[in-house]
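Sequence in, structure out.
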Amino acid sequence: MNIADLLTLPDGPRKTAALVAWVQGLFSAEERAPVLVGGAAVEILTGGAYTTTDLDFAGSVPASVKRVLQKSGFDRSGRHWIHEAAQVFLEFPSEALEYREQAVQINAYGFDILVVSIEDLLVDRLGAWQYWKSGVDGANAFILYRKCRSDIDFDRLTRRAGEAGFETALGALEEFDRAWSTSEPGPEDLEDWANRGPTEGSS
């Protein structure tokens, strides 16, 4: 599927996955494809429970890929590549994952893509919740935790949260999950919990 066709797809996780696959497909085997991180990874893994038009990648952009992006309608602004007409925003905030982070290949909506592991994505959201008091990231962490529970390596999640110093946030998340073990919290319940932050209780 070419970029023109991709941009006509309805907004949502399938379009996001298709765009990620297109971007990663621009890289040769020698160039090493960038890894999807951030909110777009949350969108894909949660089936659209969270949506974004920003695609963040860990990786660098070689000259060959820059040329294709420019020919496809993207304009560069620092580490950002912007398709103004389609309102698609690519960012390459780092050249690689951190050394403790892992990348995994998944098939999402028929597209093979490379994303950061669920555990590392959760730790990133928990960190923003704990230190920056970002309610959106706290809510996203809970949604991701619930939606992807069967795929989470809980031993690794606990270890990664400990290494990063986010045990408080993980503990609050787990407590809130137990409090709603038999049902799903409503949007207001989730927002209220997330906005209180992990140090003020979780239920």
